[in-house]
Design a protein that fits this description.
Blueprint lengths: L1 H16 L6 E5 L5 E5 L5 E4 L3 H7 L6 E5 L12 H4 L9 E4 L3 E2 L1 H6 L6 E5 L7 H8 L3 E4 L8 H15 L2 H21 L10 E5 L11 E2 L4 H5 L3 E2 L14 E2 L2 H7 L3 E5 L10 H8 L1 H4 L2 H4 L3 E4 L9 H15 L9 H13 L4 H7 L12
Helix pairs in contact: 6-7, 7-13, 13-14
């Protein structure tokens, strides 16, 4: 009996000391939740806006087992550099609808089963906890972040994703690249006096679909990177997360910005609607000095299945070159855009993307 008790005690101690399951590890996601995943992750699916974009930045798109249905759509406009650089996404199996509306039955029927589901915008679409319960697949939730106040969250998510798929070195390279781009932009304009900053406004910014010219981004990062007077920015919101806003047309007229920028995503609305049509036909906009003087310029879309970080950086270089040509004399905005895209998504896609939007990016747009 004494020997039996000792044996049972030893077995109990071994059970306590052993890991929960052989060949597993834990990662902490953006919620602060510890998620148990396989030691080696060979296949994943990316749920939610921007999730596959981040995986592509990490050069881990070969791990994809399936995609959501936005990747398979064929349409005239598609301003997602990561998708343009990876046309194979259009031919891959579908696991659910876009914006995180995952289909557990489709996921379980995939020929290649994912080891992990990487999910951005965890409160959108299918609940992560329920998704895990229905599929038995670990769900790692990520905060997509931005290039402003939530930049640390973006970098944290890149590191979490990299930990899942084993791309830690690449994550650090991406983070360093983004930081270097922003630092260079800010250094070139650091000594621009407040009174020397041109007043600017960007309209036509997409938000869950295309919008007209009154649609803007009050904290538009490119304007902050190169020292402009962003008239839509409200200093009272400093330190707070501030996203999309619709500005009264009367306010835009009252502001009368020195320069107007058009987010080309608005062209999705067609020739008889959207921001470009409004600038060309609305009598109120026709009174603006920037319209009269031909100071209206096209920018690559800020949002397209959430924020396009590569486009945001590229737009900042164009705006800097336009407003402060002496400080950006060495910069060709189109070439800089392709430098950014090549690093982030593996291919120079500016020409292809610009062609979708009538070659209006980084050019003066006739509206008079």
């Amino acid at each position: 009996m004494h020997c039996l008790n000792r044996l049972l005690t030893c077995l109990l101690l071994l059970a306590v000391a052993a890991p929960a399951a052989a060949g597993t590890r834990s990662v902490t996601d953006s919620r602060g939740e510890s998620v148990t995943i396989a030691e080696k992750v060979d296949h994943v699916i990316c749920s939610g806006p921007g999730s596959l974009r981040l995986l592509t930045y990490l050069q881990a798109q070969d791990r994809i087992a399936a995609v959501d249905d936005i990747e398979g759509r064929r349409r005239q406009f598609d301003a997602r550099p990561y998708a343009i650089a990876n046309p194979q996404f259009k031919e891959m199996p579908i696991f659910g609808q876009f914006r995180g509306f995952d289909n557990p039955e489709l996921i379980l029927s995939l020929e290649t089963q994912p080891d992990v589901i990487l999910k951005t915008y965890g409160t959108m679409g299918h609940d992560p906890v329920e998704l895990h319960e229905k599929t038995g697949i670990p769900v790692v939730v990520l905060n997509y972040g931005d290039l402003g106040k939530l930049r640390p969250e973006l970098f944290k998510s890149l590191r979490i994703m990299a930990e899942v798929v084993g791309r830690q070195d690449r994550a650090e390279a991406v983070i360093a690249f983004i930081e270097a781009q922003i630092a260079d932009l800010e250094k070139r304009t650091a000594d621009v006096p407040d009174e020397g900053r041109p007043s600017v406004f960007v309209g036509g910014v997409a938000f869950k679909g295309p919008h007209g010219y009154q649609s803007t981004e009050p904290t538009y990062p490119p304007f902050a990177f190169v020292k402009t007077n962003n008239l839509a920015y409200d200093a009272r919101m400093s330190g707070k997360e501030l996203r999309h806003a619709d500005v009264a047309k009367e306010m835009i007229v009252q502001w009368n910005p020195d320069y107007l920028f058009l987010d080309l995503s608005t062209l999705q609305m067609g020739g008889q609607a959207g921001g470009l049509h409004e600038l060309r036909t609305d009598p109120a906009y026709q009174t603006l000095t920037a319209v009269k003087e031909g100071k209206v310029y096209g920018l690559l879309p800020y949002n397209w299945y959430t924020q396009n970080f590569g486009c945001i950086l590229a737009n900042a270089w164009f705006i800097g070159k336009l407003l402060y040509p002496d400080r950006f004399a060495d910069v060709d905005p189109a070439a800089k855009a392709d430098e950014i895209f090549t690093f982030l998504v593996g291919k120079p896609v500016f020409k292809d993307m610009n062609a979708m939007f009538g070659n209006l990016a980084y050019k003066r747009i006739p509206v008079k």
